[in-house]
């Protein structure tokens, strides 16, 4: 028989992502609605180890749905990677009376949560919160839509100046292992070419494409490059292209951390609210070691282990093919 | 045997929606890529009746992916509602050599397209383009995400002033028969109450809710009201509430047509590109009288008749329940 | 000899305006830098009467420069309009040890501050904070630039849909006595006509202008109407125009309170910082009953009485003439 | 006696800036209103040399007031730096019947215009168009306000993630010789420190400041660095700081060309309209070799030579001092 949950701990871990605050709000208010206490754990697993707990009531999450970042903060925690660290963390939870967890974050967050839950038999539900959209079991992760919109605003602005000067621009976007942002935002920005970690686009292919554009009188072009692209990042690609393609004025922009911030979009706020709400309902229903995700506009649960182990190619195939055709 | 298509006509009809231009671009470029000619039909069915055709090449749709509205314009057309009108339109299409159609719009657009296709045996694929998200067969319609973001930006701004003055705000959003915008944007905006056409919320219930908020020290509240709400619109609701709830300073804002415009979001641009691309591919594959929609992040075809006849309740049930809980 | 100031009270009063928080931050931090204590007075003069004081340190104003609204809140206060009310307020200030004031707000705020200062000999400096830009002695008031940008974003969005449908739009903006927002935002939005309280534009003139536009093939038009326009507001103007000008589809939008909110623009944040800083420096220099304003990108002091009594026409004349010419 | 002007040429030159299109629109429509013809010269002086002229009517500038970049494009032109180049350009102007010029751009644009006008006796008025705000004779240049707003949006986003991770961020903004953007946007963004080309801030001073912030419990800091700062750019400063200040996680963002683009703000659109309008009125009044600028919210003329030769320190001194105090 499942023991009734009395006090839920909620934390954010890994890189911050827009929507985390909306999700914290949903966890806190759903918990309170269901008669639980809710405790915020500061700075992710580090706060669990260091006993940084803060009691949350309905007012603690007032007026945060629209804020980027995370009010609970986030940090790396090497100690939690050891059994001893997790044991210490668990003892702290116990002392505090926390008997269930909602952990919001990415791959590393899931791994930590899964271990803790298995080793010390505490129920845990994870919410996919990362701008990279690289988690199995959810069509979208918290922050991905906001990051895409931040990138296309930048592309729209750069296109103004690219078109005014007949220039070629290389824009590097986040994504060390995942080309999701590059593909979606590049498609939405009407980029002339998109370089991804998942697909080997040689420099020769890229130059051919740019030459074709130049022949058909395109006077400016924008190339989106995921930071994890095999050719070695925007500066390096620009250097290689410059050698063979001299008549163009080439500029590079690295968007960097501004992609992580910003007020979450409507999509991310609704997604964050649904998943936070569903996480608490899942705990209440006796679930554990699951990720709550969205599939086909419906909330679905996936085993944490399955989500962690599944690195399958996530990019939509029609998008890959289409993005090439639409920039002819 | 299916006759090969040589020339595709593309039109936008009904209310304009952000993403329509991105969709036109996708139709034109996919058509050209597949070796077809593409003709733009101006002002929807009216342009079909009046022969307002314009040849489109790859450059015609350059730099439009980010624009709101529709470069092909849109209009109502009473003539097209008659058999004679459609016959005249069909003759014009034939004279022009147009042997297939992509029609972007809502309910009324679909009905017109379905009739024309059936009566004159011309293949047609429809794309759901309306900010209302009220079409069966697609999780999302073009423009819905952009409209939601426009609404939450307005809510965020109004909350600044509501909180500074301890005020109660009623914000009316679009949606004569559909509460989709009200529900999503209200949820994303953290609205204290949401009134929808699909659900009967009496004034008494609303007042109870607002009183509860006042008791728990909420100093300001925002109520979202879909224009089709049974209580009769924001001004009327405000009047009724004022009578019973006098200690509050109550203000009304009608967002109106600014919800239709604006540069489409990343989500809408990608959706528009995918659906425009898929529409042409569907025609090429011999499909007709279908709507291309998105379901679970995959493109799916639905019979036009099925889409038109299906007025089933579309609001996500978990959202309905959740939106009440999260504003405690 | 001027007595050294030890404790400064800061308040916001009247309608809230973006930039008020940036100004509070500047007052607090400049005060602390100069070795004073700073006390926030909540809800304007009401909080002075009701002793709602809160001690402010450097951290109290951390991360508020970008927030719309006012963290000190604002309210109307009828009691303060009486001598007895002001006496009570002054006694509270004295009890608290507050020996100087910075008051941020509009016309009414200035009048209250001037009276209190004169009657009870407490030094006071005012900062012009109102989106209406209707105060003598400063080229710009806090929030005006932000409000203008909010309005042009709305106009840009509405133009998308106006152009797609060949429609005529009437947009009502704030300004009961002042046409500043209407003139600047109308000019910046490329409005086809602008109706202001300061200038009598008859309906006949407006119709003539719209007809001229229609003749020269303008397919859509946008008319900006200040709420204080003599013709009686956007709904009324639309009704009158409809009677004589039937071939157009006419729509009305009332922007309302969303013009008050939003994160302040760069211009408003810098202005707010400069004026808050200058207000404290002016108190330190022994000034009283002055408004700090910006004239020609330099901070200038103006006597409060002069500012209050001067209702001179503030609209830039070149703008008035120009706005007519640029929409030909 | 001044010869009446019949045909005005308008061009944009140097780096593009938001507001250039609004200015072109004002020049064209004011010219037409005064009975002149107006010709657009493409790609700045290069188009003058290569005869890239395009006739402009009222419709040519329809719906461009809100667009970033420049529809006339801009380019560098080495040929125009020689007498022979300018002679060729002048002959082309004469052949086309262009008897007066409006040139929109920066320092280099002014120098070219001044030479051409003096050597060949053709009247010319310049408009200050550059995001750098580094021209003498105008409080503000076209595009500066928009660039500042682009930068503070980036700062606001980066602060979300800085605060969530307790990080130190270095953000490099445009300004090779001018710290205007760094100072205004840094002030508006609440940056903890600002490094400018005009002021020598040693690394030691910076570190001291950051240490003081750390002592007073600031958990995150943002430092704005103009690209022309004497310490050698953001990457280099970050490297030097890292060596002495190891407990912080330090990140660098280079905003780059996205600062040049984007829809102009209300301020820039109004400024651009006023200056374009005033430029044509000045030509009509017989003026030449002048820059039209804004001083104290009034249009003022300045001799081009005076503007070119005057490199005086333009930064507002109160801002310099204040920006240090407000981040305590």
Automatic annotation (TrEMBL), chains A, B, C, D:
Superkingdom:
Bacteria
Family the UniProt entry places it in: Belongs to the phosphofructokinase type A (PFKA) family. ATP-dependent PFK group I subfamily. Prokaryotic clade 'B1' sub-subfamily.
Binding-site positions, Mg(2+): 107
Please list the residues that bind ADP. 25-29, 159, 190-192, 218-220
Q: Which organism is it from?
A: Hufsiella ginkgonis
Keywords (A to Z) from UniProt: Allosteric enzyme, ATP-binding, Cytoplasm, Glycolysis, Kinase, Magnesium, Metal-binding, Nucleotide-binding, Transferase
Query: What does this protein do, in the record's words?
Result: Catalyzes the phosphorylation of D-fructose 6-phosphate to fructose 1,6-bisphosphate by ATP, the first committing step of glycolysis.
Name the Enzyme Commission number(s) assigned to this protein: 2.7.1.11
Instruction: Report which gene this protein is encoded by.
Output: pfkA
Instruction: Report what the protein is called.
Output: ATP-dependent 6-phosphofructokinase
GTP-binding is among the record's keywords: no
């Amino acid at each position: 028989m499942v023991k009734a949950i009395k006090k839920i701990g909620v934390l954010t871990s890994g890189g911050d992502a827009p929507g985390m605050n909306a999700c914290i709000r949903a966890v806190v208010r759903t918990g309170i609605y269901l008669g639980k206490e809710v405790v915020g754990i500061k700075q992710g697993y580090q706060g669990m180890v260091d006993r940084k707990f803060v009691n949350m009531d309905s007012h603690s999450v007032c007026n945060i749905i629209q804020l980027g970042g995370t009010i609970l903060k986030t940090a790396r925690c090497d100690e939690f990677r050891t059994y001893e660290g997790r044991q210490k963390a668990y003892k702290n939870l116990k002392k505090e009376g926390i008997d269930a967890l909602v952990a919001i974050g990415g791959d590393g967050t899931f791994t930590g949560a899964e271990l803790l839950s298995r080793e010390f038999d505490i129920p845990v539900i994870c919410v996919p919160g990362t701008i990279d959209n690289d988690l199995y079991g959810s069509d979208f992760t918290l922050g991905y839509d906001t990051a895409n919109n931040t990138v296309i605003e930048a592309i729209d602005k750069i296109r103004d100046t690219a078109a005014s000067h007949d220039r070629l621009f290389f824009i590097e976007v986040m994504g060390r292992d995942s080309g999701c942002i590059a593909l979606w935002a590049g498609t939405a920005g009407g980029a002339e070419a998109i370089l991804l970690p998942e697909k080997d686009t040689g420099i020769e292919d890229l130059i051919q494409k740019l030459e074709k554009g130049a022949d058909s009188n395109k006077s400016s072009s924008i190339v989106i490059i995921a930071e994890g692209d095999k050719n070695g990042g925007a500066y390096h690609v620009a250097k290689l292209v410059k050698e063979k393609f001299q008549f163009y004025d080439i500029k590079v922009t690295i968007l960097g951390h501004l992609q992580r911030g910003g007020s979450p979009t409507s999509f991310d706020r609704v997604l964050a609210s649904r998943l936070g709400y569903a996480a608490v309902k899942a705990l209440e229903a006796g679930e554990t070691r699951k990720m709550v995700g969205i599939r086909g506009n419906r909330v679905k649960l996936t085993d944490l282990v399955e989500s962690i182990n599944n690195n399958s190619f996530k990019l939509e195939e029609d998008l890959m093919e289409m993005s090439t055709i639409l920039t002819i």
